[in-house]
What does this fold into?
Amino acid sequence: MVGRKSLDLTMNTVQYPPSPDMLAAMLAATESAHEYPDMRATELIGTLAARLGVPSDRVLVGPGSAALCQLLVMTVAGPGDEVVYPWPSFEGYPEMVVHAGATRVAVPLRGHGIDLKELAAAVTERTKAVLLCNPNNPTGTVFSDAELAEFVAAVPDDVLVIVDEAYREFVTEPGFRDALAGGPRGLCVLRTFSKAYGLAGLRVGYLVASPALVARLKPMMPLFAVGSHAQAAALAALNDEFAREVEKRCAAVAAERDRLVALLRAQGWSLPDGHGNFVWLPVGERSAELTAFFRERDVLVRLYPGDGVRITVTGRETGDLVAGIAADYLLENGVA
It folds into this structure.
């Protein structure tokens, strides 16, 4: 007999399906599946540039923000170079640096947040890039545009500062400004349609950088990197009506996130305020044990060995299930 499928809360995807307009756009693209997609995603780049208020030569579309980040690292860094990043952060960063043949420089968080001063101190003459995730995955913490500006001013101009904003749509922190709105010039900003827009399976994201960097990256991009379905769905996702729907969806996820944080704290867990679509349980050496406890109850959570456990936030029913399992763990083990 086939066992029941576990609830997967490891990937930070949203529970909402694509909109009817997005589905219709994908269906229309299917009818032209015998033709190649626009190799440079020209229409999508133009639409994004207009939305963001930047020239189109500053925008590059690719198969997800993670793939674009990997391309950036491999383009600017190689053997003998260093790439600095906070830790724990997005688990793909260390692998990207290794693939480039560069040296990893992981800077521990201060508390649960990114310590930008320590990151700046870790930059050497060998450093080619710094990776920053805001909100930070997996801890959910954010830094301000003023802190970012101070950091950029502290590092040499030839060090590329990459700000990964995969979860920016879920931030409800008063006064929060993303790197494009409030950050200094000279940054490379990464964004994705995988999270808030619900297109994780289609692989489409983009970056905004200087025209010179975009021109340098274009020849390095795989040909036809973003398929017709992904381009069509992303364009449909950018219409005004769905943009308002995305805001409502993200607000609902953020409200459930905050409710779950409050439930867990009431049980005795210590965890930071979250600003993504996930919560972070910094349980250190008990991380593997807690992950196994959830798995035994058919719930999969993301393990960061020795650091903590990240749990994707979806709806209220799932939040109650997570809180119930967390309470059972405390009852059986007597610790948080």
User: Anything to note?
Assistant: The first strand starts at residue 7 and ends at 9. The longest helix spans residues 240-267.
